[in-house]
Each structure stands twice: as structure tokens, then as C-alpha cells.
Amino acid sequence: MRIQAAGLTKEFGGRRAVDGLSFTVEPGRVTGFVGPNGAGKSTTLQLMLGLVHGGGRTLFDGRPYRDLPCPVREVGAVLDARSFHPRRSARDHLRMLAAAGGRGRAPDRRVDQLLDLVGLAPVAGRPAGGFSLGMAQRLGLAAALLGDPRALLLDEPANGLDPHGVAWLRELLRAFAAGGGAVLVSSHLLAEMQLLADHVVVIGRGRLLADEPLDQLVGRSVREQVLVRSPDAGRLAELLAPTGAAVDRTGDGELTISGVGAEVVGDLAHEGRLRLHRLTTRSASLEAAFLGLTRDEVEYAAGDRP
Amino acid sequence: MTALLSYEWRRMRSLGSDRALVAGVVAFALLADLAAAGRPLDAEGAVFHVVQRDLAVRWLAAAAIGAQAFGHEFRYGTIRPTLLGFPRRGRLLAGKVAAAALAGTAGALLASAASFALLLALTRWDGSLFGDPRLWRSLAYGAVTVGLVAALAAGLGALTRGTGLPVVLLALWAGILEPLAAAVLGGGAGLLPFLSMLQLAAYSGEAVDLGATGPLSAVVFPLCLAAVLVAAAAAFARRDATTS
User: Fold this and answer.
1) pLDDT at position A175, please?
2) Where are the domains of chain A?
């Protein structure tokens, strides 16, 4: 399923939360949706699914969500992990939602399969109000998968999951995409997103900042850097000057070098008989790319000191 | 619509509060029936015990069940997954109102049947009791009025996005405003929504001293319900699906 969002716009009290946002979620890959707090990620997902009203439109294989014949069999979504009645059991919650798929008794078997899949089978009969955030996320994910959909829209699904849960979620979503499904997943966990996403959509203050393959974004935004600590840092900087490398003195005896690889730095130090106490490479990261892209788009920035 | 009714049935069935309300209405009727033990029972007496005596209690329980149809959805944020399953809001409202009406009517019929069965076991009666058409008419109208109150509460729940407020509004309307109006208006008050339903469900067509209201009484409450539902549909379609 291909998901096309075009011109999405939403205002709250005259303030534009989402501003003409357009992007496409392709099948067979995981699309990460990232942005600072208050950038409009959750609002965008709600706009796409018709839960809030605004400008623009989103088409799921050419049709708006509300026109899909049986939406839960086409699109699974988790927008708020705690969207359940606290006194209803996990099994009853899923059985209720399964009725939206209209498949008679079959959903009950599907419910039990999914409770097993997400690891909630032992607590399926307990009221969901007692669940931790991680358990609630698992219940939400089971709800999204109930209709065996072709696309998943997930808002911060890794929040509250333990490291095993995060790894499990990553494998689940990768397998879903590998099976031809389309996945749009928002997250603040950029290191996790770097492991999960094939493509990223970055927004800030409701506007699109980037929409490109993850590797391209990361590679374009930040070059690889070489970190050096040496008692002869000054001399090493002089030796590096003819290579055109950019050298920053980041501390006492420390250099951050970009423009040349670690091999070049090591060879030059060897030729100059300079001592190196540290020679490491810092790879380009989504976090660095994200911070660079959104530097001026942060809505809620923390102060320097407590 | 079948999927939506099934969804609502599962929603209501899985909540202890809904089950407790229905059980409470049945238990109330059965306990009250004990007072009639050993007495003779005719059709008019049966209508009093099985329908009229408990009508206010049943309306109140139906209002609570109906108000939960939307009130709980907004309170606990389940309106989002519900709308993901049923994104056409007008259809969702219609389905929820229909489900509330059906649940209210079925609950009232269940309570009446249980109450009637116990009365037949406890009292002295003869076969002519079952041949009186006014008995069956009152039973049917009584159950329908309970369903209509549940539907009205569902509509008010969609408007107010709450569970308590619709019940309080309906209790004030039926329990205070209409009796006050009846004291002022006299006979004309029989055409007020709740009083008209009370008259309809009565054995003689005259539950309170307002005179029989005739066929017009059958449309007063449905008209009020329609007005509330139109307002609820407009509000539900326009507002964002945020939690209360």
C-alpha cells in the first residue's frame, strides 16, 4: 500500500501546528517520522487518519481513509498506547476492536494469536488499566495488527519498551516491511530509528525539513570525523594542514578532524614520529543529522543550566 | 452496520458497570415484587408491578448505559481506535444510538419478564390476565420508552463527551423540570416528553392526573430525540477526536 500525504495543514488557535506537509510512504520499507517535541508528528498522523480536521488529504492506495471498505484490514495504527478502558481486559479490548473487521468468530482466534505474538497471553484476562507503558504499547501493537493490515502507522511505539522489547519491535516492523507492508513510525529514539528506518521524513514546526533515504540524509548532513588525542596535537595539526582537512582543537591535546580518514591521520603521525594516545572514528549518525537539520526548529528548548 | 452493532455489543458486554446496571434493574424489580406475594393479580396490577412501578429506575439505568456509549470513549481515549474501525462518523453515531436503544429495550424486557414470572409464582391470578391487550401494549411501550431514553442519553453523551452530565441532565429534566411544569400547566403537561412516555406505558393511558394524551404523545419524545441526535451528529462530525 502506498500512502500519499499532500498539503496537510492544521491550526490550533491561529497557530499552525502542521504547515503544508507532503510526503509519501512507500510499501516494502520502514519510513521514520522524526521531529523535535511539538513539531506536529502526532497531529500529522491524526490528520492522515481523519481523527482531526484540517487541510490537505491523505490517500491510501488512492483512497482517503474513510473511504476504505474495511479500514482495519488495510491500515493498522497506534496513536496512543493507553487508548483502552482501564477495567476491560486485554483480551476483551482486542475482541471488541476485532469486531470492526467484521469476520464473525475468526477474530477471537486472531486475538489469541496476537496476544501470544506480543507476549501478553499470560495477562490477557487482567484489566488493562494495570499495565505498564511497555505492556500498553504491546497491546496497542496487537490492536494495530488485528486486521492483518497492509500498512502500519505508529506514534512512538518504542516508548516504554525495555531493550528486549525495542529489539523485538524492530524485528517485527522490519519483517512487516519485508513482506511488502508500508510502515510509518514516529520516534524520539534516533539511534533506534537509525537501525530501523530505510527512509526518513523530518519535520520541524510543522514543516517538512527532509524526506529522503536514511543513508543519504545521514551521509549528506554529517561527514565522518576522526578524533585524536596526542601530546603532539599542535604538530599533528601542522602536518594535516596541507591535506585540506578541517581540524578543530576540541580540548587539551584533542583534535577533531574531518575531510580525511583515520588512515591518513595515522600515517602522518607515524611519518612525523608523533605519539597518539587515541585515534578513533566518529561515524555520521541520524542524531547528528537531525540536530543539524532541526537546530532552528526546536519549539521547546531547555535552558543551559538547571 | 452489523459490524458496528457487534462492536457495541462487545463493548457493553465487557464492562462490569453495564452488567451491574442491568442486574440491578432486574434485582430491584424482583425485590419489589415480593411485596405482592399472596395477593390477587389482574392485568392492571400486573402493568403496575411489571412496568410502571420501575419505569423511573429503568430510565435512569438506561440513561447511564446510553451515556457510556460516547462518554467512556472520550474519557478513556478509545474514541480513536473506534473511529479507526468506523471512520464515518454519522454511521458511527447512528450505530451507537441504535445499539443503546436495543440494549435499553432488551434490558427492560428482561426485567419485565423476570418480574412477571416471579409475580405469577407469588400471586393469585386467572387466565383472563393474559387476554387483556392493554397488558401487552404497556409491556411493549414500557420497554420501548426505556430504549428511547438510552438513545437520548447516547446522543447527549456525544454532545457533552461525558458520562455523568447526560445522566444528570436527564434526571433533572424528567424528575424535576417536567413535574414542575405539570404543576403549572396542568393537562397540557401530558405532552412533555417524559410525561408523555409515562402516559403511554400506563395501563389506562393515564399514569398521572393529566388526562390521556392521545396519539400525539407517541411522537413527542421521538421528536426531542431527533433534535438531540441532529445536534449531536453535527457536533461529532465537526469536532476533532480528542479525549475529554
Assistant:
1) 95
2) 3-213, 223-283
